Amino acid sequence: MSDVQEFYTPENWRMDESVGYLVKRLSLVVSRELDRRMDALGLTDAQWKPLLVLQQGAGKTAADIARLGCQDTGAVTRLVDRLEGKELVRRVRSEEDRRVVNLELTEEGRQVAEDVPKIIAHLANQLLEGFSDTEFHQFQDYLRRALANAQVLDQGENG
Q1: CATH number for the segment(s) 11-117
Q2: Whole-structure pTM value
Q3: Which DSSP helix (H) or strand (E) runs through 104?
Q4: CA dihedral in degrees (105, 108, 111, 114; nearest 10)?
Q5: d(CA 159, CA 52)
C-alpha cells in the first residue's frame, strides 16, 4: 500500500460528491455561462480563448494556441480562419523565421479582446460570492496542489 491518504474508498465514493465530478460540473457550467456572455461580443466559447491568449501574450502562433488549449493544430487552424474572417486576427509571417506564421490581433480584435477579461472577471467574482479573501486564496492553493498532483500522475503515464 502507499502512504496516500484515502479520502475515498469504494464504499464511500459517490460520483456527485467526488472532487473530479464537482470540478468538471463547475467547468461545464462556467463554460456555458461564458459562452452565453461572450455572445454579446459575437464570439463562441472556442473563439474568445485564442483572442485572450494573443491579448495577454501567452502565445503568438496557432501551435501555441493548440498547445495551451489542448487542441489539435488542424482545429486551431480552422478556428483562426474564422477569426480572420471576422477581421479579429491576422496572420503575419515571422521576420526571424519565414516558416513561422505569427498571429496578431487586428485593431477590432484588440477592442473585442479587451472586453474578454472584463466578462471573465465579472463572472468569476459572481462565482466566488461569499468567499473571504483567505478562502479565495486557499481555494486557489487547493486547486493548484490538486493540479500539480494530477500533472505528476500524467507525466508518470506519459513520461
Answers
A1: 1.10.10.10
A2: 0.80
A3: strand 101-105
A4: -40
A5: 30
The 10s digit of each residue's pLDDT in 42-57 is 998 889 999 999 999 9
Query: What's the CA angle centered on 77, arms 73 and 81, to 5 degrees?
Result: 170
Helix then strand then coil, % of the chain, to nearest 5: 65, 5, 25
Closest CA relative to residue 57, chosen from 103, 95, 89, 88: 103
DSSP 36-99: HHHGGGT--HHHHHHHHHHHTTS--BHHHHHHHHT--HHHHHHHHHHHHHTTSEEEEE-SS-TT
Cell of 149: 498532483
Domain ranges of the chain: 11-117
pLDDT digits (tens, 9 = 90+) for 141-157: 999 999 999 999 988 76
Rounded to whole angstroms, how far apart are CA atoms 103 and 92?
Answer: 6
Of 44, 47, 62, 66, the C-alpha closest to 104 is: 62
β-partners of residue 90 are 104
In this structure, what C-alpha cell is assigned to residue 85? 474572417
